[in-house]
Specification:
The protein has about 260 residues and is an alpha/beta fold. The chain has eleven helices and ten strands. Strand 3, helix 3 and strand 4 form a beta-alpha-beta unit. Bound molecules: D-glutamic acid (DGL).
Amino acid sequence: MENRPIGIFDSGIGGTSIWKEIHKLLPNEDTIYLADSANAPYGVKSPEDIIQLSVKNTELLIAKNCKIIVVACNTATTNAISYLRNTYTDIAFIGIEPAIKPAALQSNSKIVGVLATKGTLSSSLFHSTAKSHGEGITIIDKEGLGLVPLIEAGKASSVETKILLKEILEPMLRANIDYLVLGCTHYPYLIPVLKELLPSNITIIDSGEAVARQTKAVLEKGELLNGAKHAVKHQFYTNADVTILSTFLSDVNSFLKIEYLKF
Ligand code: DGL
C-alpha cells in the first residue's frame, strides 16, 4: 500500500485525456499532473530537445514524491522513454504509443490511418511497433501539423481546425481506411469534429484506456496501490494559461487544484 501520488506529464493539456482514464479506473489514487504548455508543441522538436524536456518534467515529479510516472504523451514516449527508464531506475514509467495493434486486429479493409506528430511518426520506436503489430495491414500515417497549437489555444472545434483536419485526413479517406488511430493525447479532444468529418464506417481509437489499465497493473504488481481511505487529492500544474487547462477539466466532477507553476 502506497499513498504517494501518481505523476503524469504531457507537453500540454493533451494528457488530461489520459488523466481522465486513470482517474476513472483508479479513483482512490492521488495525482500530480504537469502541463508543459509553455514548451508545446513537442511534436516538431528534435529528439534531444524532447528528451531534455521529459527529463525536466520527470525530475519535478520525482521531487514531488510521485511513486510512478505516466508519460501521457506519444511524442515524449517514443523519443524519451528509454532514456528515462535507463536514467531513473528506481521508478516505473508508463508510456503511450499509437494503438496500431488493436486497429490491425479489427480492421476489415486492412488499411489503417495513424494521426500523430512528426516526432512520433519519425521515431524508431514507432517504426518498430508499426512493423511488429502492423503485419498484413497498410498504414497511412499523417502528421497532424498545426493541430496541437489549435487545441492548446482552446480552438479544437473551430472552423480553422475543421478545415485543417479535412485536409490532413483526405489521403486517408482516399485510401479507404476503416480505422483511425489517434496517436497523440491531444487528439481525443478532436473526436466531435472528427465524427462530423469522417464517414460512419470509420472507427476512431486511442490508447487512453489501455494506458490506465497498464498503470493499474504496474501499481498492483509493485504493491503500490493506495488502499487507504482518504480525501483524494489532484494537483494540476501548468506553466502557461490556467484558464485553458481548467476548460479541459470542466467535465470532471472532482476536487481539482489547478495552478500556475514555472517549470
Ligand atoms: N500530446 C502529445 C502527444 O501525445 C504531444 C503533442 C505535441 O506537443 O506536439 O504526442
